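User: Fold this one for me? It's Membrane protein SirB2.
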Amino acid sequence: MGVDVIFIITIIVAIIFLSIAVFQVLLSLGYPLGEFAMGGYFKVLPKKLRMISAVNAIILLLMAFVFLVDSKVIIAYTFLPTNILVWAITIFLGVNSIANLMSQSKKERLVMTPLSTITFLLCLVISLS
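Assistant: Here's what I get for Membrane protein SirB2.
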């Protein structure tokens, strides 16, 4: 695949990660979106899970940064082994897609499973490039 295609796919992946990070921030602030995340057990996440959502948001932003640096969308001096991290994130997304598919929450299965699966496939394309 051409570099331009990978460049565009990477930007799409970063936008998806950013969008999910915003979703996680909303969860951490107590918005009633809990049925779409973490098994869907709570409409509003309890305080402990809100803290986890806040940490998840930061991790998602770091994941976007790793992909943007690895694909040279942004140029940054980094000591991070981005190629290894891209593969680790991609594998995590594959496992996450399976976990979302097995969720007891219908809302999580219907929304998050396709989102994580599409993101996994896009990341796999980037990883293999």
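One thing worth pointing out: Residues 3-28 form the longest helix (26 residues).
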